[in-house]
Amino acid sequence: MVGKTEPWACVTCPKSHCSRVEAVQNSGLLSPGPQPRGEQASWLTQGSLVPCRNHGDSDEQTARPQRPGERLRQRGEKGQAPGGLGWAGLHLTGSPLQLLEALAQLREDRQVRVLLFRSAVKGVFCAGADLKEREQMSEAEVEVFVQRLRGMMTEIAAFPAPTIAALDGFALGGGLELALACDLRVAASTAVMGLIETTRGLLPGAGGTQRLPRCLGVALAKELIFTGRRLSGTQAQVLGLVNHAVVQNEEGNAAYHRARALAQEILPQAPIAVRLSKVAIDRGMEVDIASGMAIEGICYAQVRGCSSPCLLVSRGWVRVGDLEQYVTNLVGSSQP
């Protein structure tokens, strides 16, 4: 029996070599693993949402897409009730605009409680930009390209549910910037990550100069960016760049499995409380601590005793995004 839409989603990068930031633009919805050869499309393909097969553990079931853009439903893992942790779905080819559309679809789905980013390519999460390709662009094209990437990272960071990046390989340049846009990061011990743009005569342009200092502190972020240093997953955990580092397995997906376990820890928690905790933390980090305490108080008031806005969301009468806007308006009206 087909269960309800799973309460998590997985975004996968299926690019064959994943050697550029654009590989992120091929990310897929609810895709559990690598795709077979011959089905990996170039980021330049004028594609749309395309059915993606399931690959991976034998417990995973294959879901059949109904039409492009439609969310897929499928069975959960063996031993789990319908609506448990399950996956299958679509991969996306084309431009960042299509990934933005995919994120918009998931953002409106109140049943998605965790969004997980992983690569479909063994040994690589995303290895950065193709400078030769960028050199062929005009200045105007480069500006548009970077602005779109920056906007895409912003949308990932603003996703209402928790986001997790599973780094099972190289995460360089824009690949690490994508991971930094996520709430949580899990890396294999053998993963390699870094903002290496200064070694190429550039600087991080998709949020790296802003998110890395907020993650590690200003001095350490400057050191890593100035030197273009690469870190292993183990080193990244010691510095606090990733939440967890795990020993890589033979399949090359240890970080993904640890990220999935982390998602399973989040799923049972009250979704509105989790989402408003994210609002309180993210908004609070943008202001002084007194204002941050006020934001926390506003968010707390919405979940205490399931007050009216929370009740409206839990019953499906309003969207979480509307509640976030409600909190934003309250914060704005409370400031001088």
Overview of the structural elements:
With about 325 residues, this protein is an alpha/beta fold. The protein folds into two domains: about 10-265, 2-enoyl-CoA Hydratase, Chain A, domain 1; about 270-335, no CATH class. About 40% of the residues lie in helices and about 15% in strands. An eight-stranded mixed sheet has the order 3-4-2-1-5-7-9-12, sandwiched between helices. Helix 9 (about 270-285) runs antiparallel to helix 10. The longest helix has 19 residues, at about 140-155. It is globular, with a radius of gyration of 20 Å. The chain starts with 7 loop residues before the first strand and ends with a helix. One of its GO terms (cellular component) is mitochondrion. GO terms for molecular function: lyase activity. Belongs to the enoyl-CoA hydratase/isomerase family.
Task: Summarize, please.
It comes from Equus caballus. The protein has 336 residues and is α/β, with parallel strands linked by helices. Helix content is 40%, strand content 14%.
Main beta-sheet annotation: 8 strands, mixed
Series of H and E elements: EEEEHEEHHEEHEEHHEHEHHHHH
Binned strand content:
5-15%
CATH class of the largest domain: Alpha Beta
Features:
12 helices, eight-stranded mixed sheet, alpha/beta, 2-enoyl-CoA Hydratase, Chain A, domain 1, 12 strands
How is this fold's topology laid out?
Elements: E1 8-13, E2 28-29, E3 49-52, E4 89-92, H1 96-107, E5 114-119, E6 124-126, H2 131-135, H3 139-157, E7 163-167, E8 170-172, H4 174-181, E9 184-188, E10 192-194, H5 208-216, H6 218-227, E11 231-232, H7 233-239, E12 244-246, H8 254-266, H9 271-284, H10 289-303, H11 308-314, H12 320-334
Parallel strand pairs: 1-5, 5-7, 6-8, 7-9, 8-10, 9-12
Antiparallel strand pairs: 1-2, 2-4, 3-4, 10-11
Helix pairs in contact: 1-3, 3-4, 4-5, 5-6, 9-10, 10-12
Biased composition (Basic and acidic residues): 54-78
GO molecular function: lyase activity
InterPro entries: ClpP/crotonase-like_dom_sf, Enoyl-CoA_hyd/isom_CS, Enoyl-CoA_hydra/iso, Enoyl-CoA_hydra_C
